Amino acid sequence: MSALYIVGLDEAGRGPLAGPVTAGCVVLPPDFPLEMLGDSKKLTEKKREAAEKLIKDKACWGFARVEHDEIDRINILKASLRAMALAYEDMLTRWPAWLISQGVTGEASLEAIADGLYSPDLDCPVRAEAKADGRYPAVMAASIIAKVGRDRIMRDYDALYPGYGYARHKGYPTKAHVAACRSLGPSPIQRMTFSY
C-alpha cells in the first residue's frame, strides 16, 4: 500500500513594489513539532527563523524565486504560480534521499495543497484553498520557508541599494518606500508594472 504525503505550497511577496516573489514547498515528517508552526505573517521574526531552521533540518523542502523583471513580463499571479512550481521541483530533488531517511521503502505518493485561489501545474494532484496557511501544517511550513527566504533576499538587496529601506519594509508599499522611489527614482529591482 502506498504512503500518502501532503505537500504544502505558499508564496511570499505578491504585494511589494520591488524584489522577487518567492515560494516554499514542504512535506513534514509525522513527528514534526507542529506547535512551532503558524501563519508566517503572525509569527515573530525570531520564531519564523527558528521554525525555518527546524523545517530545513527535519522536513523535505523546496524554495524558489521569480525575479522582478519576470513579474513585470508575465504578471504577479503567473509569477507566484511559477515560483510554487519551481519550489516543488526543488523539493523533489531532496525527495528520494528524504524518504530513505524516514525509513520509507515502499511506494510513496504526493498530494499538494496551495494557499490561495489558484494552484500551480504539478505532476501530482493539487488543490488551491484560501487561507490554507492557517489550516494545514505543511502549508504553514511552506509559508515560513517562503517568507524567511524572501526577507533574507531583501536584506541583501538593502546592502546593494542603500536608501530604499529594503531591510525594514522588504519592498512593501510603505510611505517610506514610496517616498524613496519618488526622490531617488526606481531601484534596479523595482517592479515597473506596479504603481507607486
Radius of gyration: 17 Å
Backbone structural class:
alpha/beta
Main beta-sheet annotation: 5 strands, mixed
**Percent of residues in helices:** 40-55%
The largest beta-sheet arranges its strands as: 3-2-1-4-5
Q: Number of DSSP strands?
A: 5
Number of helical elements: 6
Q: What percent strand? A: 15-25%
Identify low-pLDDT runs.
none
Give a brief description:
This protein has 196 residues and is an alpha/beta fold.
Structure description:
The chain has 196 residues and is of the alpha/beta class. 43% of the residues lie in helices and 18% in strands. The chain has six helices and five strands. Strands 3-2-1-4-5 form a five-stranded mixed β-sheet. 44% of the residues are buried. The model has no long low-confidence stretch (mean pLDDT 94).
